[in-house]
């Protein structure tokens, strides 16, 4: 068993689901338990400067070369998505996958289907780690944690030449709070990488601009038998708002660089209805245009009814890291070369979502995202190839080597 696989199989057994409703940091006790274990693990592999602060883990390795080179960082998050249970994860190791369907849970007839997930064909002959069909796996992002620690253990034991390195493990990334309390100043890196991507070869240095939108519609309830010209059904007014948004600009009908409006939840009755949206676009001007469109629709409907029947609350969440990373592309160039040197084809693609790296880039730490090798994150069909994890370790080490040559 390779060291990165050994790490990973151990880490996924820790329950670290983040909880959006909890405002403390970290949002779940399991993350602290996992974090405290990781502190000891980092010390065990030979890192002396390790600390945990407000649920964030920081570890530092001093340079072992005379020449001054930039300090770099590697970052992953400890929590798993609340989209599915991360309790009692029972990973299954599939040796030398030969294609076809994988039965995850025979009792409940849960199958990882090659027809539904055709990318499985890319992993014929590889060893895979899957779920048992009851939980997510946790490769997002315990694979990243495992890969960073395996790389650092090799670096220390082999005494390979390296500059100063920082390691950061964050809580609550899955609920959008991973960078909230990250101490960029004391971390002290000039460049960093989140090891939090998916498919083998991915290198991501651009992501959505993002905003959250809450719509509150105030209706007027009157007995339905006597409601003519009196009742205002807030659900119907909410539907008016929904219908005036571009109907094709939703997640299920967009891809690539296309943005969208996504209705996350809707709750209401005649008296009051609330809508929760996320707004996404890569292009800053289009992103601002989407927010203006929402404001204009609200104003139009309010004018129709003659009073403020709809209240809209828009809050920006994060921005496209590309604007910051383009200011110094060395961080991308070294990563791309490292991926190529690991004999992997780089896949430069935008993240149709967010990452700690986008926030950190705007906090002064340029942080693109690198693959972990995982597939189908956040659900029971999640899996990862052992070979992909090993390649991620190799890429981390080649990035370290790349900065020694600057």
Overview of the structural elements:
- The protein folds into 2 domains: 3-207 and 320-404, Aminopeptidase (3-Layer(aba) Sandwich), CATH 3.40.630; 209-318, 2-Layer Sandwich (Alpha-Beta Plaits), CATH 3.30.70.
- The protein has 406 residues and is of the alpha+beta class.
- It has an 8-stranded mixed sheet, covered by helices on one side. A 4-stranded antiparallel sheet has the order 4-7-18-17. Strands 12-13-11-14 form a 4-stranded antiparallel sheet.
- The radius of gyration is 23 Å and the shape is globular.
- 30% of the residues lie in helices and 23% in strands.
- The longest helix is centred in the C-terminal third of the chain and has 22 residues, at 284-305.
> How many independent structural domains?
2
Write the element-wise H/E pattern from the N-terminal end onward: HHEEEEEEEHEHEEEHEEHEHHEHEEEH
CATH superfamily of the largest domain: Zn peptidases
The helix/strand class is alpha+beta
Numbering strands along the chain, what is their spatial order in the largest sheet? Answer: 1-2-8-3-9-16-10-15
Oligomeric description of these chains: single chain
The total count of strands amounts to 18
Distance between the termini: 35 Å
Rg (CA only): 23 Å
CATH fold title of the largest domain: Aminopeptidase
Largest sheet: 8 strands, mixed
The CATH class of the largest domain is Alpha Beta
Overall body shape: globular
Proportion of β residues?
A: 15-25%
Q: Provide a count of the helices.
A: 10
What labels describe this entry?
single chain; four-stranded antiparallel sheet; 30% helix; 406 residues; 10 helices; eight-stranded mixed sheet; Alpha-Beta Plaits; Aminopeptidase; 18 strands
């Amino acid at each position: 068993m390779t060291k990165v696989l050994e790490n990973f199989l151990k880490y996924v057994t820790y329950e670290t689901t983040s909880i959006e409703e909890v405002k403390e940091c970290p949002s779940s006790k399991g993350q602290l338990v996992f974090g405290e274990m990781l502190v000891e693990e980092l010390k065990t592999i030979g890192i002396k400067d390790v600390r945990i602060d407000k649920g964030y883990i920081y570890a530092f390795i001093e340079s072992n070369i005379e020449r001054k080179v930039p300090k770099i960082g590697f970052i992953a998050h400890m929590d798993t998505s609340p989209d599915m249970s991360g309790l009692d994860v029972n990973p299954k190791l599939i040796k030398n996958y030969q294609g076809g369907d994988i039965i995850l849970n025979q009792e409940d007839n849960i199958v990882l289907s090659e027809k539904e997930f055709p990318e499985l064909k890319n992993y014929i002959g590889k060893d895979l780690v899957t779920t048992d069909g009851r939980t997510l796996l946790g490769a997002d992002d315990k694979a990243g944690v495992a890969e960073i620690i395996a790389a650092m253990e090799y670096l220390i034991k082999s005494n390979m030449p390296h500059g100063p390195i920082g390691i950061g493990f964050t809580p609550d990334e899955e609920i959008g709070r991973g960078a909230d309390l990250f101490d960029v100043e004391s971390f002290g890196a000039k460049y960093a990488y989140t090891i939090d991507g998916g498919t083998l070869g991915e290198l991501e240095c651009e992501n959505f601009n993002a905003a959250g939108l809450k719509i509150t519609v105030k209706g007027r309830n009157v007995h339905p038998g006597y409601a003519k010209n009196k009742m205002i059904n807030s659900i119907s007014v909410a539907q008016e708002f929904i219908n005036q948004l571009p109907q094709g600009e939703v997640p299920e009908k967009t891809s690539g660089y296309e943005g969208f409006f996504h209705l996350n939840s809707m709750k209401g009755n005649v008296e009051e209805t609330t809508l929760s949206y996320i707004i996404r676009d890569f292009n800053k001007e289009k992103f601002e245009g989407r927010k203006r469109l929402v404001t204009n629709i609200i104003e139009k409907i309010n004018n129709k009814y003659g009073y403020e029947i709809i209240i809209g609350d828009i809050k920006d969440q994060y921005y496209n890291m590309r604007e910051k990373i383009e200011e110094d592309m060395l961080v991308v160039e070294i990563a791309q070369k490292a991926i190529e040197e690991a004999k992997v084809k780089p896949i430069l693609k935008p993240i149709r979502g967010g990452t700690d790296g986008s926030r950190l880039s705007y906090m002064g730490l340029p942080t693109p995202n690198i693959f972990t090798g995982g597939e189908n994150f956040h659900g029971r069909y999640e899996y990862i190839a052992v070979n992909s994890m090993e390649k991620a370790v190799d890429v981390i080490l080649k990035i370290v080597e790349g900065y020694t040559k600057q």
